[in-house]
Amino acid sequence: MPRVAKELSALEVKRLSQPGMYAVGGVPGLHLQVLPGGGKTWLLRVTIGATASGKQRRSEVGLGGYPAVTLQQARDKAREVREKITQGIDPIAERKAARSALLASRATEITFEEAARLCIEAKSPEWKNAKHAQQWTNTLTTYAFPTLAKLQVRDIDTPHILEVLEPIWKVKTETAERLRGRIESVLDWATARKYRDGSNPARWRGNLEAMLPKPSKVAKNGNHAALPFAEAPAFMTHLRKMEGTGARALEFTILTAARSGEVRGAKWDEIDLEAGVWTIPADRMKMGKEHTVPLTEEAVALLKALPRFEDNNLVFPASRGGELSDMTLAAVIKRMHESETKAGHKGYIDPKQTDKNGNPKVATPHGFRSTFRDWAGETTHHPREVIEHALAHQLKDKAEAAYARGSLFQKRQALMADWAAYCAK
């Protein structure tokens, strides 16, 4: 049993300044240690239980630093420690267990933003297109992170998911659906890695379907806004007066009826100007199959007029050297539309689609594939399978697709030449 020292007052404790160990009394074994650097800390010297050999173990229990822990607080803590020892509890072992539990808890802590980035990193090797990772990141950053980014994944529940989805579910249904699926994947990843447990609050079936309307019921205008084909020639005349890489990329997109992403990622080594062929590799195609595009005289002339850069293989590079964004092409149409409306004309709109305010939607780059499809189907005698091949579509009839193994390249050359001539009217 430690000797009971004289009880020091708070003022006496404050005056202790020489390095050393000072018994302060009030509780057996309670000391104030003054360190050489001037710092002070509370220590309680105790004898704990018995070891395997039957000997008692002497230990020092830290009670905190002075003056953050006052004399009275140190005495109270010391009494609590001694009471635990009396009850057969080892306070040092208890602290180690608590510290271990804390570290284990921290090891399972991860925010949604951290989980999303790790999930994307883990899944990206299975994606055929490297741009998918960027699309995932952009979607989550824009719509999910403002609400979920700093939340621990284990704490995310249905109300959080609804807070993200409800504002865009009816007005950007396709985006909202895609976003929901990506959030679900991130949380599934977190569950598999033991960062959370329980059901996935972003799951649709048996969960969100009871709280949100079916996408098919609210996405009535889900198609990309398209310009009526009768207005395509006037649009192209206006477009050819526009300057900039974005305008040329949009013109090339329309002439080839390609997807804007295929055009924005086009590389010079994919193009044979002499043969008039653009070969898009499988890893850049939606269907995962190589696609050859016949280039008309107009498309070849457009390409020949473009500048080339030694250190950049992209046909339509952005000003900073990377790929153009899809918004760049959309911005060209928007500027053209605004100039038309300012002049008192209706602009370039899709009369069959309206926005949430009931206004006609402005045509989109992707919508020109529909413009081309409507023109070819309604005004020409080109076979349907030729038109579908030109759009790089998978034929819906499996039997028909099984026999249509060729690319119908020569027939597509004639089709695209007619389209270019029509656009030049």
Automatic annotation (TrEMBL):
InterPro entries: CB, DNA_brk_join_enz, Integrase-like_cat_sf, Integrase_catalytic, Integrase_DNA-bd_sf, Integrase_DNA_bind_dom, Integrase_recombinase_N, Phage_int_M. Keywords: DNA integration, DNA recombination, DNA-binding. PROSITE patterns: CB, TYR_RECOMBINASE. GO terms for biological process: DNA integration; DNA recombination. The keyword DNA-binding applies. Residues 222-416 form the Tyr recombinase domain. It comes from the Bacteria. Residues 110-191 form the Core-binding (CB) domain. Residues 342-366 are annotated as: Disordered. Belongs to the 'phage' integrase family. This is Integrase.
